[in-house]
Amino acid sequence: MNECLIKIEDLHKSFDSNKVIDGLTLSIGRGESIAIIGQSGTGKSVLLKHLIRLLSPDRGRIYFDGKDIAKLQGENLVAMRRRYGMLFQSAALFDSLTVAENVGLGLHESGDYRKSDIDIIVQDKLEMVGLSGSADKYPAELSGGMRKRVGLARAIAAGPEVLLYDEPTTGLDPITADVINDLIVSLNQRLLVTSIAVTHDMASAFKIAERIVMLYEGRIAFDGTPEQIKISSNPIVRQFVTGRATGPIQVR
Amino acid sequence: MEYYPVMTLGRRGVNFITRLGGIFVMIGRFVVALKDIPRSVRLIFEQLYAIGVQSLPLIIVIAIFVGAVSAWQAAYQFKFIGAPLRYLGQAVGKAVVIELAPVLSALVFAGRVGAGIAAELGTMRVTEQIDALEAMGINPMRYLMMPRVLACLIMVPLLVVFSNFIAILGGLSVAVVGVDISSETFLEGFKSSFQVTDFVNGLIKAGVFGLVIGLIGCYEGFNTKGGAQGVGVSTTTSVVISSVMILILDFVFTVLLFRL
Fold it and tell me: Which residue among A146, B91, B158, B253 has its CA within the 20 to 30 Å range from the CA of A194?
Protein backbone atom coordinates (compact mmCIF):
# COMPACT_ATOMS: atom_id res chain seq x y z
CA MET A 1 0.00 0.00 0.00
CA ASN A 2 1.10 3.55 -0.67
CA GLU A 3 1.81 5.99 2.15
CA CYS A 4 -1.22 6.01 4.48
CA LEU A 5 -3.43 9.06 3.93
CA ILE A 6 -6.60 8.14 5.85
CA LYS A 7 -6.65 5.92 8.92
CA ILE A 8 -9.88 4.87 10.62
CA GLU A 9 -9.47 3.26 14.04
CA ASP A 10 -12.20 1.32 15.86
CA LEU A 11 -15.07 3.48 14.57
CA HIS A 12 -18.47 3.09 16.23
CA LYS A 13 -21.67 4.89 15.28
CA SER A 14 -25.29 4.34 16.28
CA PHE A 15 -28.47 6.21 15.46
CA ASP A 16 -30.83 5.79 18.43
CA SER A 17 -30.74 2.03 19.07
CA ASN A 18 -29.56 1.16 15.56
CA LYS A 19 -25.84 0.31 15.55
CA VAL A 20 -24.61 1.19 12.06
CA ILE A 21 -20.82 0.98 12.41
CA ASP A 22 -19.41 -1.39 14.97
CA GLY A 23 -15.66 -1.16 15.47
CA LEU A 24 -14.47 -0.51 11.92
CA THR A 25 -10.73 -0.15 11.28
CA LEU A 26 -9.39 0.74 7.82
CA SER A 27 -6.36 2.42 6.26
CA ILE A 28 -6.41 4.05 2.84
CA GLY A 29 -3.20 4.85 0.99
CA ARG A 30 -2.47 8.01 -0.97
CA GLY A 31 -3.50 7.57 -4.60
CA GLU A 32 -5.59 4.45 -3.99
CA SER A 33 -8.93 3.81 -5.73
CA ILE A 34 -11.12 2.01 -3.27
CA ALA A 35 -14.74 0.90 -3.48
CA ILE A 36 -16.70 0.29 -0.30
CA ILE A 37 -19.53 -2.11 -0.99
CA GLY A 38 -22.30 -3.58 1.11
CA GLN A 39 -26.04 -3.84 1.54
CA SER A 40 -28.17 -0.74 1.94
CA GLY A 41 -28.08 0.37 5.57
CA THR A 42 -24.67 -1.12 6.40
CA GLY A 43 -23.15 2.28 7.07
CA LYS A 44 -21.30 2.97 3.81
CA SER A 45 -22.54 6.55 3.38
CA VAL A 46 -22.26 7.10 7.13
CA LEU A 47 -18.60 6.10 6.91
CA LEU A 48 -18.02 8.52 4.03
CA LYS A 49 -19.62 11.39 5.96
CA HIS A 50 -17.36 10.66 8.95
CA LEU A 51 -14.27 11.21 6.78
CA ILE A 52 -15.08 14.91 6.32
CA ARG A 53 -16.72 15.21 9.74
CA LEU A 54 -20.24 15.72 8.52
CA LEU A 55 -20.88 13.12 11.23
CA SER A 56 -18.92 12.52 14.41
CA PRO A 57 -18.23 9.01 15.71
CA ASP A 58 -19.59 7.73 19.02
CA ARG A 59 -16.18 6.15 19.57
CA GLY A 60 -12.98 5.75 17.59
CA ARG A 61 -10.62 8.03 15.68
CA ILE A 62 -10.11 9.13 12.10
CA TYR A 63 -6.75 10.47 11.00
CA PHE A 64 -6.25 12.42 7.79
CA ASP A 65 -2.67 12.95 6.72
CA GLY A 66 -1.57 12.07 10.27
CA LYS A 67 -3.94 14.49 12.02
CA ASP A 68 -6.87 13.46 14.22
CA ILE A 69 -9.80 15.18 12.46
CA ALA A 70 -11.84 15.35 15.70
CA LYS A 71 -9.34 17.94 16.96
CA LEU A 72 -9.63 20.22 13.94
CA GLN A 73 -11.52 23.47 14.52
CA GLY A 74 -12.40 26.57 12.52
CA GLU A 75 -10.04 27.28 9.63
CA ASN A 76 -8.18 23.98 10.09
CA LEU A 77 -11.43 22.02 9.67
CA VAL A 78 -12.33 24.05 6.59
CA ALA A 79 -8.82 23.49 5.18
CA MET A 80 -9.16 19.71 5.73
CA ARG A 81 -12.57 19.63 4.03
CA ARG A 82 -11.23 21.55 1.06
CA ARG A 83 -8.69 18.78 0.44
CA TYR A 84 -11.71 16.56 -0.29
CA GLY A 85 -14.27 16.69 -3.07
CA MET A 86 -17.53 14.84 -2.65
CA LEU A 87 -20.13 13.63 -5.12
CA PHE A 88 -23.38 13.15 -3.20
CA GLN A 89 -25.87 10.36 -3.91
CA SER A 90 -28.52 12.78 -5.19
CA ALA A 91 -25.80 15.15 -6.52
CA ALA A 92 -27.09 17.74 -3.94
CA LEU A 93 -26.98 20.59 -6.43
CA PHE A 94 -28.27 23.97 -5.25
CA ASP A 95 -31.62 24.47 -6.98
CA SER A 96 -31.42 28.25 -7.03
CA LEU A 97 -28.01 28.38 -8.72
CA THR A 98 -27.08 27.68 -12.34
CA VAL A 99 -24.76 24.83 -13.27
CA ALA A 100 -21.79 27.21 -13.51
CA GLU A 101 -22.64 28.84 -10.16
CA ASN A 102 -22.94 25.41 -8.54
CA VAL A 103 -19.53 24.37 -9.81
CA GLY A 104 -17.89 27.66 -8.84
CA LEU A 105 -19.58 28.14 -5.45
CA GLY A 106 -16.83 26.63 -3.31
CA LEU A 107 -14.18 28.68 -5.12
CA HIS A 108 -16.22 31.87 -4.86
CA GLU A 109 -16.95 31.46 -1.16
CA SER A 110 -13.34 30.60 -0.31
CA GLY A 111 -12.40 34.17 -1.24
CA ASP A 112 -9.13 32.89 -2.69
CA TYR A 113 -10.01 33.26 -6.38
CA ARG A 114 -10.78 36.15 -8.72
CA LYS A 115 -14.03 36.06 -10.69
CA SER A 116 -12.17 35.68 -14.01
CA ASP A 117 -10.16 32.73 -12.64
CA ILE A 118 -13.33 31.06 -11.34
CA ASP A 119 -14.95 31.38 -14.78
CA ILE A 120 -11.95 29.67 -16.39
CA ILE A 121 -11.85 26.85 -13.82
CA VAL A 122 -15.62 26.26 -14.08
CA GLN A 123 -15.45 26.09 -17.88
CA ASP A 124 -12.50 23.69 -17.68
CA LYS A 125 -14.25 21.36 -15.19
CA LEU A 126 -17.50 21.38 -17.15
CA GLU A 127 -15.53 20.41 -20.27
CA MET A 128 -13.92 17.55 -18.33
CA VAL A 129 -17.36 16.13 -17.53
CA GLY A 130 -18.73 16.88 -21.01
CA LEU A 131 -21.18 19.60 -20.02
CA SER A 132 -19.60 22.77 -21.37
CA GLY A 133 -22.86 23.75 -23.10
CA SER A 134 -24.97 23.57 -19.95
CA ALA A 135 -23.32 26.26 -17.83
CA ASP A 136 -26.39 28.50 -17.71
CA LYS A 137 -28.97 25.79 -17.06
CA TYR A 138 -30.59 25.20 -13.70
CA PRO A 139 -30.46 21.75 -11.98
CA ALA A 140 -34.20 21.25 -12.59
CA GLU A 141 -33.51 21.32 -16.36
CA LEU A 142 -30.98 18.46 -16.20
CA SER A 143 -31.37 14.67 -16.40
CA GLY A 144 -30.16 12.42 -13.55
CA GLY A 145 -26.90 11.60 -15.35
CA MET A 146 -26.22 15.27 -16.11
CA ARG A 147 -26.84 16.20 -12.48
CA LYS A 148 -24.28 13.61 -11.38
CA ARG A 149 -21.79 15.03 -13.86
CA VAL A 150 -22.35 18.56 -12.55
CA GLY A 151 -21.87 17.14 -9.04
CA LEU A 152 -18.59 15.64 -10.24
CA ALA A 153 -17.46 18.94 -11.78
CA ARG A 154 -18.27 20.67 -8.48
CA ALA A 155 -16.39 18.01 -6.51
CA ILE A 156 -13.20 18.48 -8.55
CA ALA A 157 -13.45 22.29 -8.93
CA ALA A 158 -11.09 23.18 -6.08
CA GLY A 159 -8.47 20.57 -7.06
CA PRO A 160 -9.03 18.12 -4.19
CA GLU A 161 -6.58 15.37 -3.19
CA VAL A 162 -9.32 12.91 -2.28
CA LEU A 163 -12.58 12.29 -4.13
CA LEU A 164 -15.51 10.73 -2.30
CA TYR A 165 -18.30 9.22 -4.39
CA ASP A 166 -21.54 8.34 -2.59
CA GLU A 167 -23.44 5.82 -4.76
CA PRO A 168 -22.29 7.44 -8.03
CA THR A 169 -24.43 5.23 -10.28
CA THR A 170 -27.58 4.82 -8.17
CA GLY A 171 -30.75 5.76 -10.01
CA LEU A 172 -29.12 5.81 -13.44
CA ASP A 173 -29.81 3.52 -16.41
CA PRO A 174 -26.97 1.02 -17.14
CA ILE A 175 -25.58 3.01 -20.06
CA THR A 176 -25.52 6.33 -18.21
CA ALA A 177 -24.10 4.51 -15.17
CA ASP A 178 -21.26 3.22 -17.35
CA VAL A 179 -20.61 6.73 -18.66
CA ILE A 180 -20.28 7.93 -15.05
CA ASN A 181 -17.97 4.98 -14.26
CA ASP A 182 -15.75 5.86 -17.26
CA LEU A 183 -15.71 9.46 -16.15
CA ILE A 184 -14.65 8.50 -12.61
CA VAL A 185 -11.83 6.28 -13.95
CA SER A 186 -10.70 9.03 -16.30
CA LEU A 187 -10.79 11.70 -13.55
CA ASN A 188 -8.90 9.47 -11.12
CA GLN A 189 -6.16 8.95 -13.71
CA ARG A 190 -5.98 12.56 -14.90
CA LEU A 191 -6.15 14.22 -11.48
CA LEU A 192 -4.03 11.61 -9.62
CA VAL A 193 -6.39 11.70 -6.65
CA THR A 194 -7.19 9.20 -3.92
CA SER A 195 -10.67 7.95 -4.67
CA ILE A 196 -13.18 6.37 -2.28
CA ALA A 197 -16.48 5.22 -3.78
CA VAL A 198 -19.39 3.84 -1.83
CA THR A 199 -21.62 1.64 -3.95
CA HIS A 200 -23.76 -1.47 -4.08
CA ASP A 201 -23.37 -1.68 -7.85
CA MET A 202 -20.80 -4.47 -8.37
CA ALA A 203 -20.23 -3.56 -12.05
CA SER A 204 -19.29 -0.05 -10.92
CA ALA A 205 -17.04 -1.34 -8.11
CA PHE A 206 -15.16 -3.67 -10.49
CA LYS A 207 -14.66 -0.89 -13.01
CA ILE A 208 -13.59 2.04 -10.83
CA ALA A 209 -11.67 0.43 -7.97
CA GLU A 210 -8.33 -1.31 -7.53
CA ARG A 211 -9.31 -2.33 -3.99
CA ILE A 212 -12.72 -3.42 -2.69
CA VAL A 213 -13.82 -3.35 0.93
CA MET A 214 -17.10 -4.99 1.87
CA LEU A 215 -19.01 -3.90 4.98
CA TYR A 216 -21.32 -6.28 6.78
CA GLU A 217 -23.03 -5.54 10.08
CA GLY A 218 -20.89 -2.47 10.68
CA ARG A 219 -17.55 -4.24 10.17
CA ILE A 220 -15.26 -5.20 7.31
CA ALA A 221 -16.20 -8.59 5.85
CA PHE A 222 -13.71 -8.44 2.96
CA ASP A 223 -10.71 -6.32 1.93
CA GLY A 224 -8.90 -7.15 -1.28
CA THR A 225 -8.60 -6.65 -5.02
CA PRO A 226 -11.47 -7.07 -7.52
CA GLU A 227 -9.84 -10.32 -8.67
CA GLN A 228 -9.72 -11.65 -5.09
CA ILE A 229 -13.36 -10.82 -4.37
CA LYS A 230 -14.47 -12.67 -7.52
CA ILE A 231 -12.93 -15.90 -6.22
CA SER A 232 -13.65 -15.36 -2.52
CA SER A 233 -15.14 -18.40 -0.76
CA ASN A 234 -16.59 -16.27 2.09
CA PRO A 235 -20.36 -17.04 1.89
CA ILE A 236 -21.30 -13.46 2.82
CA VAL A 237 -19.12 -12.07 0.05
CA ARG A 238 -20.28 -14.70 -2.44
CA GLN A 239 -23.94 -13.93 -1.77
CA PHE A 240 -23.44 -10.19 -2.23
CA VAL A 241 -21.26 -10.42 -5.34
CA THR A 242 -23.61 -12.85 -7.06
CA GLY A 243 -26.69 -10.98 -5.84
CA ARG A 244 -28.60 -13.97 -4.44
CA ALA A 245 -31.61 -13.55 -2.12
CA THR A 246 -30.74 -16.67 -0.10
CA GLY A 247 -27.65 -17.00 2.06
CA PRO A 248 -26.21 -15.70 5.31
CA ILE A 249 -27.18 -12.09 4.55
CA GLN A 250 -30.79 -11.53 5.61
CA VAL A 251 -32.76 -8.64 4.14
CA ARG A 252 -34.19 -6.60 7.01
CA MET B 1 -50.75 0.27 20.66
CA GLU B 2 -50.52 1.01 24.36
CA TYR B 3 -50.40 4.59 25.53
CA TYR B 4 -47.95 5.58 28.27
CA PRO B 5 -48.87 9.11 29.42
CA VAL B 6 -45.86 9.62 31.70
CA MET B 7 -43.44 8.46 29.02
CA THR B 8 -45.12 10.66 26.40
CA LEU B 9 -44.99 13.64 28.74
CA GLY B 10 -41.34 12.96 29.51
CA ARG B 11 -40.45 12.65 25.83
CA ARG B 12 -42.24 15.91 25.03
CA GLY B 13 -40.47 17.59 27.93
CA VAL B 14 -37.08 16.42 26.66
CA ASN B 15 -37.98 17.56 23.11
CA PHE B 16 -39.01 20.98 24.42
CA ILE B 17 -35.79 21.46 26.39
CA THR B 18 -33.69 20.19 23.46
CA ARG B 19 -35.41 22.63 21.10
CA LEU B 20 -35.04 25.53 23.54
CA GLY B 21 -31.35 24.74 24.02
CA GLY B 22 -30.89 24.44 20.25
CA ILE B 23 -32.46 27.83 19.65
CA PHE B 24 -30.18 29.45 22.26
CA VAL B 25 -27.17 27.80 20.61
CA MET B 26 -28.39 29.22 17.31
CA ILE B 27 -28.55 32.72 18.84
CA GLY B 28 -24.88 32.30 19.77
CA ARG B 29 -24.00 31.13 16.25
CA PHE B 30 -25.91 34.06 14.79
CA VAL B 31 -23.92 36.52 16.89
CA VAL B 32 -20.64 34.82 15.91
CA ALA B 33 -21.63 34.82 12.21
CA LEU B 34 -22.29 38.59 12.32
CA LYS B 35 -18.52 39.14 12.03
CA ASP B 36 -18.82 37.80 8.46
CA ILE B 37 -21.29 40.49 7.35
CA PRO B 38 -18.71 42.21 5.08
CA ARG B 39 -18.24 39.07 2.95
CA SER B 40 -21.94 38.21 2.96
CA VAL B 41 -23.37 41.52 1.71
CA ARG B 42 -24.80 40.00 -1.50
CA LEU B 43 -26.48 37.17 0.41
CA ILE B 44 -27.95 39.61 2.95
CA PHE B 45 -29.39 41.89 0.24
CA GLU B 46 -30.93 38.87 -1.51
CA GLN B 47 -32.70 37.95 1.72
CA LEU B 48 -33.71 41.54 2.50
CA TYR B 49 -35.45 41.57 -0.88
CA ALA B 50 -36.97 38.07 -0.70
CA ILE B 51 -38.02 38.31 2.93
CA GLY B 52 -38.86 41.98 3.27
CA VAL B 53 -39.66 43.67 -0.02
CA GLN B 54 -41.69 40.74 -1.31
CA SER B 55 -43.75 40.68 1.92
CA LEU B 56 -44.78 44.31 1.47
CA PRO B 57 -47.96 43.75 -0.64
CA LEU B 58 -49.32 41.24 1.89
CA ILE B 59 -48.48 43.50 4.84
CA ILE B 60 -50.22 46.43 3.10
CA VAL B 61 -53.42 44.44 2.57
CA ILE B 62 -53.37 43.25 6.20
CA ALA B 63 -52.71 46.80 7.47
CA ILE B 64 -55.60 48.35 5.51
CA PHE B 65 -58.07 45.97 7.13
CA VAL B 66 -56.46 46.12 10.58
CA GLY B 67 -56.94 49.91 10.54
CA ALA B 68 -60.43 49.67 9.09
CA VAL B 69 -61.66 47.09 11.59
CA SER B 70 -60.12 48.86 14.58
CA ALA B 71 -61.81 52.16 13.57
CA TRP B 72 -65.17 50.47 13.18
CA GLN B 73 -64.81 48.53 16.45
CA ALA B 74 -63.71 51.65 18.34
CA ALA B 75 -66.66 53.65 16.94
CA TYR B 76 -69.03 50.84 17.95
CA GLN B 77 -67.67 50.83 21.51
CA PHE B 78 -67.69 54.65 21.71
CA LYS B 79 -71.36 54.53 20.77
CA PHE B 80 -71.97 51.87 23.42
CA ILE B 81 -70.34 53.88 26.25
CA GLY B 82 -71.39 57.26 24.85
CA ALA B 83 -67.82 58.56 24.26
CA PRO B 84 -67.34 61.43 21.77
CA LEU B 85 -66.19 60.33 18.32
CA ARG B 86 -63.47 63.04 18.16
CA TYR B 87 -61.33 60.58 20.19
CA LEU B 88 -61.60 57.94 17.48
CA GLY B 89 -58.23 58.88 15.89
CA GLN B 90 -56.59 58.66 19.30
CA ALA B 91 -57.99 55.18 20.02
CA VAL B 92 -57.15 53.80 16.58
CA GLY B 93 -53.66 55.36 16.58
CA LYS B 94 -52.70 53.96 19.98
CA ALA B 95 -54.07 50.49 19.25
CA VAL B 96 -52.35 50.29 15.86
CA VAL B 97 -48.93 51.68 16.84
CA ILE B 98 -48.58 49.88 20.16
CA GLU B 99 -50.20 46.55 19.46
CA LEU B 100 -52.01 45.73 16.27
CA ALA B 101 -49.41 46.60 13.62
CA PRO B 102 -46.45 44.87 15.31
CA VAL B 103 -48.32 41.75 16.42
CA LEU B 104 -50.50 41.12 13.37
CA SER B 105 -47.67 41.93 10.94
CA ALA B 106 -45.42 39.52 12.83
CA LEU B 107 -48.03 36.74 12.82
CA VAL B 108 -48.53 37.13 9.07
CA PHE B 109 -44.75 37.31 8.61
CA ALA B 110 -44.33 34.07 10.59
CA GLY B 111 -46.81 32.40 8.23
CA ARG B 112 -45.18 33.68 5.08
CA VAL B 113 -41.47 34.02 5.85
CA GLY B 114 -40.90 31.72 8.85
CA ALA B 115 -42.62 28.86 7.05
CA GLY B 116 -40.71 29.65 3.85
CA ILE B 117 -37.34 29.57 5.65
CA ALA B 118 -38.15 26.28 7.42
CA ALA B 119 -39.36 24.67 4.17
CA GLU B 120 -36.38 25.88 2.12
CA LEU B 121 -33.72 24.91 4.64
CA GLY B 122 -35.57 21.68 5.47
CA THR B 123 -35.55 20.69 1.80
CA MET B 124 -31.87 21.57 1.59
CA ARG B 125 -31.22 19.39 4.65
CA VAL B 126 -33.04 16.29 3.35
CA THR B 127 -31.53 16.62 -0.15
CA GLU B 128 -28.00 16.87 1.35
CA GLN B 129 -27.48 20.42 0.06
CA ILE B 130 -26.46 21.59 3.55
CA ASP B 131 -24.02 18.65 3.80
CA ALA B 132 -22.67 19.67 0.39
CA LEU B 133 -22.04 23.22 1.63
CA GLU B 134 -20.12 21.92 4.64
CA ALA B 135 -18.20 19.49 2.46
CA MET B 136 -17.03 22.48 0.37
CA GLY B 137 -15.82 24.23 3.52
CA ILE B 138 -18.73 26.72 3.52
CA ASN B 139 -20.24 27.39 6.94
CA PRO B 140 -24.05 27.01 6.57
CA MET B 141 -24.56 29.29 9.57
CA ARG B 142 -22.76 32.08 7.73
CA TYR B 143 -24.11 31.27 4.27
CA LEU B 144 -27.74 30.38 5.07
CA MET B 145 -28.72 31.25 8.65
CA MET B 146 -27.14 34.65 9.35
CA PRO B 147 -28.48 36.44 6.21
CA ARG B 148 -32.02 35.14 6.84
CA VAL B 149 -32.15 35.97 10.55
CA LEU B 150 -30.57 39.39 9.98
CA ALA B 151 -33.06 40.13 7.19
CA CYS B 152 -35.97 39.21 9.51
CA LEU B 153 -34.52 41.37 12.29
CA ILE B 154 -34.23 44.38 9.95
CA MET B 155 -37.32 43.92 7.82
CA VAL B 156 -40.06 43.23 10.40
CA PRO B 157 -39.63 46.67 12.07
CA LEU B 158 -39.45 48.33 8.63
CA LEU B 159 -42.62 46.55 7.52
CA VAL B 160 -44.29 47.62 10.76
CA VAL B 161 -43.47 51.26 9.91
CA PHE B 162 -45.37 50.78 6.62
CA SER B 163 -48.07 48.86 8.42
CA ASN B 164 -48.57 51.70 10.95
CA PHE B 165 -48.95 54.26 8.18
CA ILE B 166 -51.31 52.16 6.04
CA ALA B 167 -53.42 51.05 9.02
CA ILE B 168 -53.95 54.66 10.10
CA LEU B 169 -55.04 55.45 6.53
CA GLY B 170 -57.39 52.44 6.64
CA GLY B 171 -58.85 53.67 9.93
CA LEU B 172 -59.16 57.21 8.54
CA SER B 173 -61.05 55.94 5.48
CA VAL B 174 -63.56 54.04 7.61
CA ALA B 175 -63.91 57.01 9.98
CA VAL B 176 -64.69 59.38 7.10
CA VAL B 177 -66.86 57.05 4.99
CA GLY B 178 -68.51 54.77 7.59
CA VAL B 179 -68.56 56.71 10.89
CA ASP B 180 -69.07 60.15 9.37
CA ILE B 181 -66.40 62.18 11.14
CA SER B 182 -64.07 64.51 9.24
CA SER B 183 -60.50 63.56 8.38
CA GLU B 184 -59.30 66.66 10.30
CA THR B 185 -61.03 65.48 13.48
CA PHE B 186 -59.65 61.97 13.12
CA LEU B 187 -56.08 63.16 12.46
CA GLU B 188 -56.28 65.76 15.22
CA GLY B 189 -57.20 63.00 17.68
CA PHE B 190 -54.36 60.82 16.36
CA LYS B 191 -51.77 63.64 16.62
CA SER B 192 -52.86 64.70 20.10
CA SER B 193 -52.08 61.28 21.55
CA PHE B 194 -49.13 60.25 19.36
CA GLN B 195 -45.94 59.62 21.35
CA VAL B 196 -42.59 58.77 19.81
CA THR B 197 -41.89 56.31 22.63
CA ASP B 198 -45.02 54.31 21.71
CA PHE B 199 -43.84 54.16 18.11
CA VAL B 200 -40.27 53.17 19.08
CA ASN B 201 -41.47 50.56 21.58
CA GLY B 202 -43.71 49.05 18.89
CA LEU B 203 -40.65 48.78 16.63
CA ILE B 204 -38.59 47.18 19.42
CA LYS B 205 -41.28 44.53 19.79
CA ALA B 206 -41.28 44.07 16.01
CA GLY B 207 -37.49 43.57 16.03
CA VAL B 208 -37.79 40.89 18.73
CA PHE B 209 -40.56 39.17 16.75
CA GLY B 210 -38.41 39.28 13.59
CA LEU B 211 -35.46 37.72 15.42
CA VAL B 212 -37.68 34.96 16.85
CA ILE B 213 -39.28 34.18 13.47
CA GLY B 214 -35.90 33.98 11.71
CA LEU B 215 -34.24 31.88 14.42
CA ILE B 216 -37.11 29.41 14.75
CA GLY B 217 -37.49 29.06 10.96
CA CYS B 218 -33.76 28.35 10.62
CA TYR B 219 -33.65 26.00 13.62
CA GLU B 220 -36.57 23.92 12.38
CA GLY B 221 -35.18 23.87 8.83
CA PHE B 222 -31.68 22.80 9.88
CA ASN B 223 -33.09 20.08 12.13
CA THR B 224 -35.44 18.56 9.58
CA LYS B 225 -35.37 14.76 9.44
CA GLY B 226 -36.78 12.37 6.87
CA GLY B 227 -38.20 13.40 3.51
CA ALA B 228 -41.19 15.42 2.35
CA GLN B 229 -43.11 14.61 5.53
CA GLY B 230 -40.24 15.92 7.65
CA VAL B 231 -40.22 19.18 5.68
CA GLY B 232 -43.97 19.52 6.27
CA VAL B 233 -43.55 18.91 10.00
CA SER B 234 -40.73 21.48 10.25
CA THR B 235 -42.75 24.08 8.37
CA THR B 236 -45.84 23.63 10.55
CA THR B 237 -43.80 23.52 13.76
CA SER B 238 -41.98 26.70 12.79
CA VAL B 239 -45.25 28.62 12.28
CA VAL B 240 -46.87 27.24 15.45
CA ILE B 241 -43.88 27.93 17.73
CA SER B 242 -43.23 31.37 16.20
CA SER B 243 -46.88 32.39 16.61
CA VAL B 244 -47.04 31.26 20.23
CA MET B 245 -43.70 32.92 21.00
CA ILE B 246 -44.87 36.18 19.37
CA LEU B 247 -47.91 36.32 21.65
CA ILE B 248 -45.93 35.39 24.79
CA LEU B 249 -43.13 37.86 24.04
CA ASP B 250 -45.72 40.51 23.17
CA PHE B 251 -47.05 40.27 26.70
CA VAL B 252 -43.55 40.27 28.24
CA PHE B 253 -42.35 43.27 26.24
CA THR B 254 -45.62 45.17 26.67
CA VAL B 255 -45.24 44.87 30.46
CA LEU B 256 -41.56 45.85 30.28
CA LEU B 257 -41.89 48.74 27.82
CA PHE B 258 -45.26 50.28 28.63
CA ARG B 259 -45.19 51.03 32.36
CA LEU B 260 -48.50 51.79 34.05
Answer: A146
